[in-house]
Design brief:
Largest sheet: 9 strands, parallel
Number of strands: 11
Helix content: 40-55%
Radius of gyration: 19 Å
Order of helices and strands: HEHHEEEHEHEHEHEEHEHEHHHH
CATH topology: TIM Barrel
Number of helices: 13
Number of domains: 1
Distance between the termini: 38 Å
CATH architecture: Alpha-Beta Barrel
């Protein structure tokens, strides 16, 4: 494992915001997933070389006095990044990230096909995890299960699998990022929101009753297709339900990673983040949460590859840092139209101080 990777305690401290907020750069997509994101989300044709160029631009990002560490607290990375080098062809990207003031948190996508672990997957999960940990510096395993309304037996089985996999991860000293994704099923938004609360509460209750109650875990809350569940998408209402469910389920007591749909455009992501910040402040008096959304890369990728034949690294880096600072304003509930439109990084920084 690379010495440039942080230790277990540092990762826990970085992810665990008590109180405060964190801004994570999402570079956790595998090459195969990146192909889909490039073409479907970013509107850019994919190649492995372009993925490397994006990673180099992001980890080397600096514009004047503003560098990556001034904007992001950590990078959530796929392990395929570990062996790659910067634009000089020699310095490992991990070292460049550290020099730029951020730590790299390795994430492993969870088990199973189509988002749901089978009983067979669960049987081999511990052994599979051992083999992966020997090869890669993985700090966090994302455990993802899909849940649909009106399927009580499947819901109970999914909750049980989350609890069992968390217990196995605790034995291996690897953190769990728990993502119960509530799937769109042609119902009302509130039907899905009620299911989210039920699932979150049952997972956390199960873990607290298990032998791994003290092992750190973090949650990514998600309602797939929530913005299409109603005739008009209301960012404030989506944020209200998400925050209320997280607080009611008790997951703000163990770690907070606010999950937004990677399929959203940047403006929608910022609007929801801002509303979440205001909602939590109104309820608790302080914002405890984090931005961890692939949508923050959209505009930077577009600028970087505006000319497909000649990537513009400086312009891409500026847009990545600018969007990151604007996101910081949003997760603190302080987003304004002036900040969204501002191009000067120092002006945005001053507005946040």
């Amino acid at each position: 494992m690379s010495s440039s990777l942080p230790d277990f305690e540092t990762v826990v401290d970085t992810l665990n915001v008590k109180p405060g907020h964190r801004n994570f750069l999402a570079l956790d997509a595998s090459p195969s997933s990146s192909r889909r994101h490039f073409e479907d989300d970013y509107g850019v044709s994919y190649s492995d070389e372009k993925l490397l160029q994006l990673r180099r631009m992001a980890l080397e990002a600096r514009d004047g006095s503003v560098g990556l560490g001034d904007v992001y607290d950590a990078i959530i990375a796929h392990n395929s990044l570990y062996d790659q080098t910067g634009s000089d062809g020699e310095t490992p990207l991990l070292e460049i990230a550290n020099e730029n003031g951020v730590i790299v948190i390795g994430k492993l996508i969870g088990v199973g096909r189509n988002g749901t672990a089978s009983d067979e997957d669960l049987v081999t999960f511990g052994e599979d995890l051992d083999n992966i940990l020997k090869r890669n510096g993985v700090h966090v395993v994302k455990l993802r299960q899909e849940f649909y309304p009106n399927r009580p037996q499947a819901t109970s089985e999914g909750v049980d699998k989350f609890v069992k996999m968390h217990e196995i991860c605790a034995q291996k000293d690897v953190l769990t990022l728990i993502e119960p994704e509530i799937m769109k099923d042609h119902g009302e938004f509130y039907t899905h929101a009620d299911l989210q609360l039920d699932v979150l509460r049952r997972i956390e209750d199960g873990i607290r009753a298990s032998g791994a109650a003290k092992h750190p875990r973090f949650y990514k809350t998600s309602i797939a297709g929530a913005e299409q569940s109603r005739d008009s998408f209301d960012a404030a209402e989506w944020a209200r339900v998400t925050v209320a469910n997280a607080l009611s389920a008790g997951i703000y007591d163990v770690g907070k990673v606010v999950r937004l749909s990677g399929g959203w455009d940047t403006d929608t992501m910022l609007a929801v983040q801002n509303e979440i910040g205001k909602q939590v402040q109104r309820i608790t008096g302080a914002y405890d949460g984090a931005s961890y959304a692939r949508a923050g890369l959209r505009s930077a990728v577009g600028v970087l590859f505006e000319d497909a034949q000649s990537p513009n690294f400086a312009a891409g880096a500026h847009e990545l840092l600018r969007t990151g600072l604007v996101t910081r304003a949003a997760i603190a509930g302080r987003l304004s139209e002036d900040i969204k439109a501002e191009e000067s990084l120092t002006v945005i920084q001053e507005a946040l101080n």
